[in-house]
Write a structure and sequence with these properties.
The chain is an alpha/beta fold. It folds into 3 domains: about 100 residues, Rossmann fold (3-Layer(aba) Sandwich); about 90 residues, D-amino Acid Aminotransferase, Chain A, domain 1 (2-Layer Sandwich); about 80 residues, Dna Ligase, domain 1, CATH 3.30.1490. The protein is about 35% helix and about 20% strand. It has a 4-stranded parallel sheet with strand order 2-1-3-4, sandwiched between helices. It has a 4-stranded antiparallel sheet with strand order 5-8-6-7, sandwiched between helices. The protein has a 4-stranded antiparallel sheet with strand order 10-9-11-12. The longest helix is centred in the C-terminal third of the chain and has 21 residues. It starts with a strand and ends in a 6-residue tail after the last helix.
Length: about 325
């Protein structure tokens, strides 16, 4: 029997629907269930062919446990090694090398010294930073947000340099990004599952949370194809099996705004019934595909083009 497990936190509608959908298909020798961990010993598998990870970004114990599962052959969705290594600043840097438009972005040292460091720990960091060059590059208004993490936590819209200094003083030890504001005409949130199944969803981040998926943008077939190509390219290079990409259209150009969301919102109450049905069905089918392809004692993870091309020393733009 090949077990598909889902590892989750507070969410309920997606995990339960995912399990029910897989088991309802009655695939021979495939069963889905919530992951259960009652012990963890090095080099010992937990018994799952596939695990869908929805929570390890918030629970370090889960993240390192999943690495052992991957080592012993489990197909973990998403790859816990890459997820641990990735961050939003690197994502933007990579996009500049593969032809995906992104806002101008700079990374900033934390406002406060990290725990267990002193000024001497930063011998190689100029003080003060060349703020004038950074501000001229990004421009104002701008957004400041953590270089890792999500959920609109600690996100600031800044009007000018004075506003920046004031808000940066509130960020403590967080490492922040300063990013160009893209004043958009249309905005889309795009699921990508299995690196190939894409759903483009009109989205309005300026609406109240419960109305964000009520946007009425109507892209042409040509525009849909353009966005699908960008979403596909991003996920092929990053190597995520389950991700969302946010695209803001300015003057007809889709800018990738936020595209490292490996545990994206999939609750029915927020994404709506139609989107929920698509993600449950698509995720279930992909997990079944991975389970049927499972071979014990081998690497069953997905690795992105960035890693694969780096390993073979191929150029990114090829």
């Amino acid at each position: 029997m090949k077990k598909i497990g889902i590892l989750f936190g507070k969410e309920r509608s997606f995990p339960m629907a995912f399990i029910e959908r897989i088991n309802g298909k009655a695939i021979k020798d495939v069963i889905a269930e919530p992951v259960r961990i009652d012990k963890a010993m090095q080099g010992e598998p937990g018994g799952y062919a596939v695990i869908v990870d929805r929570i390890s970004q918030d629970v370090p114990f889960y993240r390192t446990w999943l690495k052992n599962e991957a080592l012993t052959g489990t197909a973990v969705i998403n790859n816990p090694f890459w997820w641990s290594a990735d961050d939003k600043y690197f994502n933007n840097c990579l996009m500049t090398k593969i032809g995906v438009p992104v806002p101008k972005t700079a990374i900033l040292p934390s406002n406060e010294l990290p725990t267990d460091t002193s000024g001497e720990s930063f011998s190689n960091l100029a003080y003060p930073m060349d703020w004038e060059s950074i501000f001229n590059y990004v421009g104002f208004p701008a957004y400041m947000k953590p270089y890792a993490g999500g959920g609109w936590k600690s996100v600031y819209r800044l009007e000018d340099a004075r506003d920046f200094y004031e808000k940066h003083n509130e960020t403590g030890q967080l490492v922040m990004l300063l990013q160009e504001e893209i004043v958009f005409d249309e905005y889309y949130r795009c699921y990508c599952i299995g690196g190939k199944h894409i759903r483009i969803m009109p989205y309005e981040p300026r609406n109240p949370f419960h109305l964000r998926y009520s946007a009425t943008f109507s892209p042409s077939m040509e525009r849909l194809k353009q966005m699908e190509d960008i979403v596909y390219r991003i996920n092929q290079y990053l190597g995520y099996d389950f991700n969302t990409v946010e695209l803001a259209l300015r003057d007809g150009v889709p800018y990738a705004i936020d595209f490292g969301n490996p545990a994206p919102d999939a609750e029915q109450s927020s994404v709506g019934i139609d989107n929920f049905e698509w993600v449950v069905e698509t995720a279930a089918n992909f997990a079944i595909e991975k389970a049927l392809d499972y071979k014990p004692n081998r690497d069953n993870l997905t690795w992105g083009e960035y890693i694969k091309r780096s390993a073979t020393k191929k150029k990114l733009a090829e």
